[in-house]
Design a protein that fits this description.
By secondary structure, the chain is mainly alpha-helical. Helix content is about 80%, strand content about 0%. It is built from ten helices and no strands. The chain starts with a helix and ends in a 7-residue tail after the last helix. Keywords: Membrane, Transmembrane, Transmembrane helix.
Length: about 200
Amino acid sequence: MSAGNISNDLFFLHNSYLHTTRPDLESFVDRTMPFWTTQDTRNAILSTLVPGGAAALAFATFAKDVETVKWWEAVRKPQWAPKDVRVYSLVDVLTIAPLGYASYLVYKNGGGFDYNDTRLALGLYGTNLLLALATVPIVKQRKISCLATNSILVHLTAAAAAYAFYNIDRRAGYLMIPYSLWTGYYAILTWAIKKENEIVKDL
């Protein structure tokens, strides 16, 4: 190969590099094998602690609040509903725990907050967590109607976040499925409880 050919090839590569776009890079890099560093591992663990810690805190709150536990046991429920409030808290912990890792996958593989789809997905996720945390004071105040309404909002934002996550990173979407199903079940349950207690209203 002549020196002229090498020079031309180098010029072509240099010129191509200057005009490389994000789609070009995405087609070049294997998206199924993203670069993962020790810093990513640390960030993923920290992200997992956020929803997991919130769910654990809610579980501890309900478990120690004797009056709230007694109230929940006294509320009329459908026959298919678990009676113990701690069952709900335990399932909350198990289904919420993977969400932090899923959110970091979306952040990393979605290009961070520089892209609208990633901002939207993480915004839905954050809104859902805030609504889920609002369940704690609602139950402690024994407002069944408000709990039923909030549970629907929790489910809708969970389903929307799961869909948005899936469009960015399939693994993240899959990790959201148990939580989406549980919030759907919980929404149906709280509305059934509302119907069962309409005569007495909020106990």
